[in-house]
Structures are given as C-alpha cells and as structure tokens.
Amino acid sequence: MQLRRMTMGALFHDVLHDLAHLDSRVWRTLIALVLKPGKLTNEFIAGRRTYYLPPFRLYLVLSLIFFLLPSFGGSNNVVIDTQDAQDKEAVSEAMRDLKKELGAGDAAQTNAGSDETTKPADIAKPATNYAQPGEASKSTPADGKPATLLQGIRCQTVHTDLFGGDSGWLQPRLVQACQHLTTVTQREFMRSLRNNIPKMMFIFLPLIALVNLILYVFRRRTYVEHLLFYVHYHAFAFLLLALQITACAILKWLHVPFLPGFLTFAAWAYLFLYLFKAMRSVYHQSKTMTALKYLVVLTAYGVCLLITFVGAAAYTAFTV
Predict the structure, then answer these.
(1) What is the pTM (predicted TM-score) of this model?
(2) Per-chain mean pLDDT for the chain
(3) Number of H helices, E strands in the chain
(4) Confidence band for 11, pLDDT divided at 50, 70 and 90
(5) Residue 59 contacts by C-beta under 8 Å, 6 or more apart in sequence?
C-alpha cells in the first residue's frame, strides 16, 4: 500500500476541508445566536434540539473564551503599552517630584527635635524605597513589603448588626476573615475575586431567571424555559464582548483612532437591543408590554449583579 506524500499544499487543503465540513451544528448555532435573537430558545422549547449545540455547553465554552482573554494580552490595559515617549517622560518627572516630597517629609519627621543639620543628600535618601512607574510594586510602602488589603485594621473590633442582636454565630467568622485579610495583598485579593466571577454567574443566572418567572407568571412558562432564555442570552453576550475586546485590541495596536470607541459603543448598544428583541421573540407580547418588562429586567439585572458580586467578595474574603 502506497502512502500519500504529505506536502504543505495537501495539509492546507485538509485544513480547509475540515473547516468547511465542521459540524454543521456549530455554524447553525452561532448564526442563530448572533443574528436571530430568541430563536435558539424557541427551537429548544419546540423540541428541535438535535440541530443545535446544547445550551449549557455553548455557554461554558463561550464564557471560558471570554474570561481567558485577559490572559492572552499579558496586560489588562493596552493603552499603557502604546504611550508615546513624551507621556512616559511626564509620568517619570511627576514621580520624581513626588519622591522628593515624600523623602523630605520622612526626613523631617525623623530629625524632628534634633540639633543635627540635615544634608540635602540625606533628605532624598529614603525615597529610594519607592517603586518606579509601571513596576508591579507601585503600592509598596517604604519598608519594601507589599501593602495588605486591611493593613492597620484592628480585627477584634469588627462587628455587624446585619441579622440583629450581636450576631454571635457570625462574629467569630468575621474576625477570622479580617485577620486573614491583614496578611493578603490587594493584588492577591483582586486576582482571586476575578477568578471567582465565573462562579458568580452560576448564582446570577438562576436569580435573573426567577425574575422572568414572576414577570411572565400568566404565560404558563416553566422556570427551566426562563433559565434557558438567559443561558442563550449570556452566551451571546460573551461571544459579542469577546469579539469586541479582540477587535479593539488589534485596532489599538495598529494605532487606529476613534474606531475602537465606536466598536465598543456599537457592541453594548446591540447587547441591550438584542435583549429586547429576544424577549419579543420568545414571549410574544406587544412592544409596549415588552418595553415595560424590559425596564423591570434591567433594574433586576443591577440588583442581582450587586447581590452576586457581594457574595463573590465575601466568598473570596474567606477563601483567598
């Protein structure tokens, strides 16, 4: 049996063939998700599920791509890397002036009440402990140790009246969490909080679906159908925002003015419009009734996001 010799042309042909014949469910799902708000939810409710990707698998894949995007950039702020030399020099000069002021203040406190004469070289000496612009230890104090999240807080005085009385069952846990956070840096806490945001979404989705269950109580829809509606909507949101972030990063790297801001505005505008059109498509109510419930849903979004974010912050405080 003679084996086919593999060439670059043959390899390229195979790649195109695989892409063209990729599972048709992927293309059918993505096209419906982006261009036809509410269609995927209607199709699954009608029982036509074999033509599309499972909703929770679609949600997990797109959310994973969205939350992993910052890892590929290496920096959360693209603009910092593209500053011109004049801006960098201005920042460096401002930091040098600040270091002189801080150094003079520390030296004045140290030599207060002393008869010795302080030399200018000694005044500027303590400023060498401060970080330069752009370094990871920008918030590092003069002793060289990173600032902790609750630095200088007396944890034994922490108390809460959240549940009335002395909240005896909660008080020891608050003190324990406070003492732990006095050893955690701000960067460690924020990194852990960012990692917990995807978990937060699994609490947010059932909450916002409960709001739809109340709003459409007379439409005879099950809770799972409302949950499916928001799974598809958030899958679309992750896809749209991932594309927007990627496109804006490329345009900023190419130094294209105005267009990144326009793309950001357009993406968020379509995100809000998409929700309204999806509600109209799935729940089949008039524009006026849908608009009223749309405003309620937007308000509920803010409340549910606040609840889940506070929960994520509390969970992070106990587990970081």
Answers:
(1) 0.67
(2) 75
(3) 12, 0
(4) low
(5) 231, 232, 234, 235, 238
